[in-house]
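Escalated from tier 1: NDP holo job.
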Amino acid sequence: MKVALITGVTGQDGAYLAEFLLNKGYIVHGVKRRSSLFNTDRIDHLYQDQHENDVRFFLHYGDLTDSTNLIRIIQEVQPDEIYNLAAQSHVKVSFETPEYTANSDALGTLRILEAIRILGLTEKTKFYQASTSELYGGLESNKNEKGLYDENSEFYPRSPYGVAKLYGFWIVKNYREAYNIFACNGILFNHESPIRGETFVTRKITRAAAKISLGLQSILYLGNLDAKRDWGHAKDYIKGMWLMLQQDEPQDFVLATGKTYTVRHFVDLAFKKVGIELTWKGEGVNEVGIDKSSGKEIVKVDPKYFRPTEVDLLIGDPSKAEKELGWKPAYDLEGLVNDMVESDLKLFKKDQYLKEGGHETLNYFE
Ligand code: NDP
Ligand code: GDR
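Tier 2 regenerated the structure:
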């Protein structure tokens, strides 16, 4: 049985990947952070009572900022494959916590690679690095002849997150060349799902569409509605990560859909799915999304969500992954939006039911 170690197992991608690898028969170890509240919601369905026989899913406390911890876990686990998905992954938050973001996202990657080297695992352990389309920074001049970003496009990161991930990208490449480690960068464009973190724009929108349609929220405040992203489904993208580590040679690959849409378009689709048609009025900070049937303003712009430097447009070229990995995403944008909205509707119908039944949330501070 192959053994995999996933950092960031409690995150969106970590949860999908853990399930995917368990279904493939792997023994899966995950690194989770200590937190004052439970942070394992996304993987609770995979948990097995550790006293049972044939347990194949294990969790270890750890942190990418702690080398000794990483060395100990990797020594204990002796993984065939490491998927480094842990990161301070929020671009806007990286402007507020730039040093921590560099420590976890840049140096954290180095710490794992060093652990592989120190423990003499350079020939045994394959390594996947969660690199990102944020490396391109959305510069027009970086695109290829098809008008897309590919594995040869130049990088120009536009946030402390992007810059930290740039270090991660290059240190992976360097350790591959210097020590022959089977290490790959997956340059992944945005990928979303029903378990996407609630402060990323897609999930913020699908939650709000569900809540507004159920009478649980009145207004959705957003930042830059003109930003364009190449959005795919996380379920498709984690398969690509695994495929990269099953090749004969380690290489870097772009995973993307090759299509790009504005945030505004995503909002339109999500609200349409809950039966609300929007019409847009005004410009810039004064732009509003109006519910056509009620005339109410339900989407507004709040400049607090603007970023000091923005990545205006991202669109990726997945040709290499299609050709060499046989990777092809199953979801299109509409399929993704439907999956997310349906899931959030289910989630908030429960809240609505409790509210209607007079069951208010417990207030511990009264
Ligand atoms: P999430 O934010 O959902 O998950 C991040 C995970 O990393 C969580 O498990 C989090 O733990 C953990 N983590 C954060 N900081 C540390 C740390 N210092 N030590 C250990 N664990 C830590 O991200 P995604 O699942 O969406 O993304 C996975 C990876 O892929 C990230 O590296 C991200 O930067 C990258 N990426 C994501 C893309 C996307 O569109 N989703 C696109 C391209 C790259 P906790 O649950 O405790 O917060
Ligand atoms: P991104 O994702 O920065 O692309 O990083 P996010 O969903 O945060 O933003 C996408 C675009 O939407 C605009 N936007 C808003 N964003 C948020 N979060 N909240 C808002 O209210 C809002 N309004 C408009 C943003 O300005 C931006 O242009 C994600 C992360 O998963 C990274 O870890 C990953 O590397 C990249 O995708 C690829």
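Residues 89, 91-92, 132-134, 189-190, 199-201, 204, 222-224, 227, 229, 263, 305, 307, 310-311 surround guanosine-5'-diphosphate-rhamnose (ligand 2) (CB under 6 Å).
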